[in-house]
Write a structure and sequence with these properties.
The protein is an alpha/beta fold. The strands form 5 sheets. It has an 8-stranded mixed beta sheet. A two-stranded antiparallel sheet has the order 1-2. The protein is about 25% helix and about 25% strand. A hairpin with a 2-residue loop joins strand 3 and strand 4. The protein has a single domain, classed as Aldolase class I (TIM Barrel). The radius of gyration is 18 Å and the shape is globular. Helix 2 packs across helix 3 and helix 7 runs parallel beside helix 8.
Amino acid sequence: MARCSVCFRHCEIDEGKTGFCGARGNDGGKVVALNYGKITSLALDPIEKKPLNRFMSGSKILSVGSYGCNLRCPFCQNSEISWGKEVKRWPYEAEELTPKELAEMAYFYKAKGNIGVAYTYNEPLTGYEFVRDCAKLVHEMGMVNVLVTNGCASMEVYDEIIPYIDAMNIDLKGFKDEYYSKLLGGDRQMVMDFIARAVKDCHVELTTLIIPGENDSEEEMENISSWIASLTDVYDKKQGRDIPLHISRFFPQFHMTDRNATDVDLIYHLKDIAKKNLRYVYTGNC
């Protein structure tokens, strides 16, 4: 049996088995990333789709995803590559790329406006070794790395990847422990600790998806935005109130089709509340 240290779960994995995320397994008594180099999604996207609105805006970035996730959000947009054995197709069909091949592909698309690589779609830190190895080569080619993550990762993992990451969009999905633990299967404090470190080391923008009846109250948005404002953004030499927050609208999907889409007026109302504490607040899916 081997113990994984990527997130709060600390999965104890038997030989030949996988942990909760479906992406890390026990190979000869050692925890390894089974999704290393296995690519399920690849696209040249506008940087604003990550979403990053205040980092090299107007540019494009090669976005890459694998499979596996350590959360179980019932509204997941990418369940086929994130929810493991709980969906019909697993592991998802994947092509294999080495870090060198991915870095060279990113450089090839530089002529089409590409600035680097974004690690996204599934939870990229379930295979942080691939992120680290690719990002190092991308930096050596003079390009940037973007991480789109749920932030549910240990400081051990953070230290492995942060020397090569230029910007992150991190999900701050809510501000209640019960919401994180019961609905998402996550750990709010681990995410908050990850965010507090990240804003000291790279450009950070945050995203909160508003789920009707779950995290849509004025009080919760006040708490989220005031906590963000309390952080110190050392990287950009700004105060926490300058950290961008994206407030996104929910649409019924996957295991959460019993609810209506978030009311557009509510999204704009919550934006107004957040703007009392934060300088840059954006709406999404409206």
